[in-house]
Amino acid sequence: MSDLHDMEMRAVYAATLNELMDENPNVMCVEADLSKASGTNPAVVDAHPENFVNAGVAEANMIGVGAGLAVEGKIPFCASFSCFASRRVYDQVYLSVAYANTNVKIVGTGTGITQGPNGGTHMDFQDMALMRVMPNLHVYSPCDVYELRVMMRHMAANVQPTYMQLVRPKVAKVFDETYSFDPEKAVVVREGSDVTLVATGYMTAFAKAAAEELATEGVSVELLHYPSVKPFDIATLVTSAEKTGGVVTVENQNIIGGLGGAVCEVLSENCPTQVKRLGIPDRFGEVATEDYLFDKHGFGPAHIVAACRELAGK
Amino acid sequence: MSNEFNRADAARMAAEWRYIITDMICRAGSGHIGGALSLVEIMHTLYYRSMTVDPANPKWEKRDRLVLSKGHAAPVLYVALAYKGFFPANLLGTMNANGTTLPSHADARTVPGIDVTTGSLGQGLSVACGMARAAQSKREKHTVFCIIGDGESNEGQNWEAAMFAAHNKLDNIVAITDYNKLQIDGFTDDILSLEPLTDKWRAFGWEVFEADGHDWDDVYTKIEAAKAVRGKPAMIIAHTIKAKGCSVVENTAGSHNVKVGDQAAYDLYMGALELETMDLPY
């Protein structure tokens, strides 16, 4: 996949599934009538029809079917909009995947404000929080195409129930072909000394741009990217917070329970530090553009810059 | 295996199972006696006549699978597995004790021979569909059995799975409804009627059989007929009696989960069984 750089995230999702299926016939693509939105139809349907299962508009059954496939040694990637892949199937994920310890990979697509045109009914700000409190479930959120590909390769190679967020469009690049993924490790994207900025998934590219802008003003931002919020790399956060003394978190989620919640839990027990959480302040979504939602809820590029500046004391 | 079947031996074993199930639940202080006792003949027929399994190799690829979707009936499955030799029978006495490997609901993580962890109703048939779909893609010939409850059939996920199994022509699924006509709050006809149940499953594209769930020949014949169905999944509506064989609670909603708080209650339930006494394996 040499042309990765210019592909949509969902196109990389489908291409990586095809790549994995070429290597291992046990990898399965399971959908619930949103395969075109996930990018797997026609890409995976055409290349690997035997490995493609469509459950129809029946997400609970999709998760159960995924669990049954996994019981028999298959490696199912079960995708739907994140609202349906998390809150709608919470008990199915709890019992048939996490508790039963079945090797199911659940993919929540179009998470957070990236559901724009579908509005508040579909806009999901709590899938990370919901899934993070589920024992025996890893929770990932890749920030770009390079990370997505190696993250999926890691998921296919490891027996571990997992939930992964996936935004669908093209996104800015944070990494390159040399990137490697370890769920136990956060990535220090940029070293700094004045303030720690913690991001995950869709927001990491925005955070990187904010850190670069702040550098030109003389504010030194240490940017930590958390591709996995569970497991959560405690050491990297604590080391950085001890150095900078202030932490800003930014996520495409409710500020309760997700990345910001995880950061506060870790710091309050290990290194009490002032934290400013940016994200959705416990509200529902609505039909709107990303810029509108960034401004309304206060977690866009300008808000990240302002929050970092404030906590850096500059 | 069928020609080895001896009705008197089977009846004797069924009586023992009912004695052990009731004792296990009484020792634990509470439990789902009704839905376990209604399945004794069905579970015996599966493990002693219709299913191919290897107790020495519980994960044997060619074995038939069983999903006990009504996971609260786990005691009858635990007894069947212990009798077949999947694990030492003395473990049966530990059900629900602190640290036990035999919890109240069927647990594949800790019990050899259990294929799927269940307990939250409505999920097992979906899991069976996934297992059957995997077997289909691997060209494997085993059968995936799935037992669902009648109260459990209220859950909409069953009907999602019903559509999925028929659409995908999963003829390697044999499902059994334990139709004892009772759920926790009362008779199914009073709470949320399932009727016409056979018509429902037929309309969903399944081959449907009805059986007397306590008649050895009828249960066996219908299971074998269901296994032979090609091109679509098969459902056996098994007419059963909740808490069958424990006369003081037979055919009562209260038997769904009994509380056994003292010796008098223990004596009441144990004294209502066909078998007066036996040497317990624990």
Spatially, the strands of the biggest sheet of chain B line up as 2-3-4-8-7
What is the tally of beta strands of chain A? 12
Oligomer: heterodimer
**What is the CATH top level name of chain B?**
Alpha Beta
Q: What's the CATH architecture of chain B?
A: 3-Layer(aba) Sandwich
Mind telling me the CATH superfamily name of chain B? Thiamin diphosphate (ThDP)-binding fold, Pyr/PP domains
Kindly report the name of the CATH homologous superfamily of the largest domain in chain A.
Answer: Thiamin diphosphate (ThDP)-binding fold, Pyr/PP domains
CATH class descriptor of the largest domain in chain A: Alpha Beta
Number of helices of chain B: 10
Alpha-beta content class of chain A = alpha/beta
Give me the CATH architecture of the largest domain in chain A, please. 3-Layer(aba) Sandwich
Chain-wise SSE layout:
The complex is a heterodimer of chains A (314) and B (282).
Chain A: H1 9-23, E1 27-31, H2 35-38, H3 43-47, E2 52-54, H4 59-71, E3 75-81, H5 82-85, H6 90-99, E4 105-109, H7 127-132, E5 138-140, H8 145-157, E6 162-166, E7 187-190, E8 195-199, H9 203-216, E9 221-225, E10 228-230, H10 234-244, E11 246-254, H11 259-270, E12 274-280, H12 290-297, H13 301-312
Parallel strand pairs in A: 1-2, 1-3, 3-4, 4-6, 5-6, 8-9, 8-11, 11-12
Antiparallel strand pairs in A: 5-10, 7-9
Helix pairs in contact in A: 1-8, 4-6, 9-13, 10-11
Chain B: H1 7-28, E1 30-31, H2 33-37, H3 40-50, E2 65-68, H4 74-84, H5 124-137, E3 144-149, H6 156-167, E4 173-179, E5 182-183, E6 186-187, H7 188-191, H8 197-203, E7 207-212, H9 216-228, E8 234-239, E9 258-259, H10 263-270
Parallel strand pairs in B: 2-3, 3-4, 4-8, 7-8
Antiparallel strand pairs in B: 1-9, 5-6
Helix pairs in contact in B: 1-4, 1-10, 3-4, 3-9, 5-6
List keywords for this structure.
heterodimer; A: 314 residues; alpha/beta; Rossmann fold; 2 domains; seven-stranded mixed β-sheet; five-stranded mixed β-sheet; 13 helices; 12 strands; 40% helix; B: 282 residues; five-stranded parallel β-sheet; two-stranded antiparallel ribbon; 10 helices; 38% helix; 13% strand; globular
